Amino acid sequence: MVRQRTLRIPKADKPISHGSHENGLNNRKQCTTFGPVDAPKSAMALGQDLRFAARTLRKSPGFTAVAALSLALGIGANTAIFSLIDEVVLKMLPVANPEQLVAVRHTLSRGGTSGSFSQPTSKLLRDDSHTLAGIFAFDAASVIAKIDGVAEPVKADIVSGRYFDVLGVGVNLGRPIAVEDDRLGRPPVAVISDGFWQRRFSRSTSVIGRSIDIKGIAFIVVGVAPARFFGTRVAPPAPDLWVPMAAHDHLALKDNTDVGMMARLQPGIPAGQASAELTLIYQQALAEDAGSSLSPDRLKEIHTERIHLLPAGRGGVREFSQQLRILIVVVGLVLLIACANVGSLLLARCTGRQQEIAVRLAIGAGRHRLVRQLLTESVLLAMLGGALGLLFAWWGGDLLFALSGREHAPIPPDSRTLAFTAAMAAVTGILFGLAPAFRATRVDLIHVLKENARSFAVRRGRLQLGKALIVGQMVLSLLLLIGAGLFLRTVSKLHQVDLGYERDHVLVPWVLPTLVGYEGPKELQLYQNLFDRLNALPGVRSASLSRMSLLFGYWGRRVSVPGSTPVAREKTEVAFNAIAPRFFDTMGIPLVLGRDFSRQDGATAGRVAIVGEETARQYFPGQSPIGRRLHFDDPDGAGDVEVVGVARDIKIVSVKSDPRFSTRAVYVPFTQAPPSMMGQMQLKIRTVGNPRQIVETVRRAILATDPDLPVRDVETQADLVDESLGEEHSLAMLLSCFGVLATLLASIGLYGTVAYAVGRRTGEIGLRLALGAHRRDVLWMVLRESLVLVLIGA
């Protein structure tokens, strides 16, 4: 007889949810009713994913370091470019309502636009316009300021009376420049920058009322600008001081008679309407300037002139250069290569983790849960690369700013840069992690768990996507390398272009006597004294001077042959330069016909000129120009000159061709140059040896003529040639660096993919060796696969 035993189940304090269908329904109702409970659960799950991802990456330090460094280089390059774009293009001026500010520009007959206006024209635009909330003129000048008897060079912005009012900027101390200050006869005043206040006055509040002497005029300090105000610029450096436009003729260089203009639009009035009104005023001003000499052709040309209003509140008035656009594309390709690199490494790594993933799938983990876990790992890896990339971007920013052509100012990372880097890291983490995550979770559980021979074949097949990524990396990296090589060859050929003169062994410092009050005959005598003193120096083969710098100066003048048939205006402009005797000898420019200038070609002698070969061919075709006459059609160079020589043509403005500027040259003696060309000269000093070795000797000789004479930019003509190609050279160097970097990243990706593939084929390789295969055969088998990928990419 079998005794029956009774199983006693103790009473549970709480119902067991999986014990009955009713309890299950109740639980589902609770989950539905208390939905917000999911948020803490999601946060908890995310924390678990992050902790697991951190542990996983920590267990593979080699993989983590290589992947993070690859991403850091790509993200860092893009962050540096963003910092540059943000600084010169995107940032708003630190003024009130900067989106309403516009830069005023006008069209040029030779193409393009210009922001320079004569002062009478600027006053007409200011006084006669009614569609603008305000308009002001501005200009920059380098001056010598004396404070308590101590002189120093300073940067000054010369501004009209409504400058601070239109910009909507106040002052931290005192008051701004007002309209009343910008009138002749009013006491000269100045507003100083916060940096100048700190440097020269130690932030003393007694600075208001202090005097700053500039060219013999005492400017009274009436205000101190805010610390973050940089004028019409979005970033440092700020000018040292601002002075009224009434002092422009006294402070600016004699050739600097034009000013720039900026305006504020009225709310509700479109820029097109304001532009149309200003265009009409501008055309009337041009017609009035022509006066009785207004010809039908000139009137027709005036009617084509237009005023354009360009947004100036974002990034100031800087232009988005073509070099910057090229760099954006290049660093984007580098980031794409870095993503493909890390993606191929993740694909290979996920192949090694297939058994782990298969086990997790087998015990009930959802595929979407594993994809989220793998994406968390890739995003965490990208964030680590982004943090390193931020450091690389900060260190490499100086090089990019040198390329942009702006004055250097350090850019510390700000919230916008940090946000961009974080967003870039998140996007790249998802970009390179998505495909490996989906690929890794699509496994055959039976084959992977059994670890049989067919499973190995499946895993090898799963590496095909990684190989495709490697091929793509090789394509992009070789593309960058080849492009950089072609660009370097172009720059090399530009350096070999025949400029028409000898660039070596020539020192070219500037002297600016106008800053210390030299005028008229006194200035001419100063140049003559410098000419004699420099030619007498030991180690100097010959010395001269010129008003315009070769490759960095252009003065357009219209000329004609008296009694000849007029030609189109664009064909009458020549590049005008005022020079001293021995200029052609010093610069190594052959004289084809005629003679050089001499001391006899003084201010009271007959007016003479030397022309270039192209000028002679155009104005005197088929005949000798010696003894013929040219007439200057503009008031600044009025009168006839007799041609006494013909010089070889040279590169005047640029090593490259620039259709905006005439290549026809006309030279006159500096003693017969118009007054607007005076005020500064560039010395030309040809030396026997290295010109840098006599820099101090030359400087002492100049200062011996006048100890107060400002001397600037002491450099060589070869330096000027290199500087003229600076953007091309910098861009070529950057492209080369990025090309090498891209190739390095592709090589790392190739190594990672091959290494993981070989690691997974250890059993196969052992079996081949056991069956008699030689080591060289196995080595060639692996190398052959790598070479195939490289050759396909090439």
What does this molecule look like?
There is one protein chain. The termini are far apart. Helix 16 (464-495) runs antiparallel to helix 22. The radius of gyration is 37 Å and the shape is globular. The model is unreliable at 1-37 and 452-461 (pLDDT under 50). The chain has 24 helices and 24 strands. The strands form 3 sheets. Strands 4-5-10-7-9-8 form a 6-stranded mixed β-barrel. By secondary structure, the protein is of the alpha+beta class.
Helix-strand layout with pairing:
Blueprint: H1 21-33, H2 38-59, H3 61-90, E1 101-107, E2 113-114, E3 117-118, H4 119-128, E4 132-147, E5 150-159, H5 163-167, E6 173-174, E7 189-192, H6 194-201, E8 211-214, E9 217-224, E10 241-244, H7 248-251, E11 258-265, H8 271-290, H9 296-302, E12 307-311, H10 322-352, H11 354-362, H12 367-404, H13 415-440, H14 445-450, H15 453-461, H16 464-495, E13 506-507, E14 510-511, H17 520-535, E15 540-546, E16 556-560, E17 573-579, H18 583-587, E18 591-594, E19 608-612, H19 613-619, E20 629-632, E21 639-647, E22 665-669, E23 681-687, H20 695-705, E24 711-712, H21 717-724, H22 726-760, H23 762-770, H24 775-793
Parallel strand pairs: 5-10, 7-9, 17-22, 19-21
Antiparallel strand pairs: 1-2, 1-11, 1-12, 3-11, 4-5, 4-8, 4-11, 6-9, 7-10, 8-9, 13-23, 14-23, 14-24, 15-23, 16-17, 16-20, 18-21, 19-22, 20-21
Helix pairs in contact: 2-12, 3-10, 3-12, 3-13, 4-8, 10-13, 10-16, 10-22, 12-13, 12-22, 16-22, 16-24, 17-20
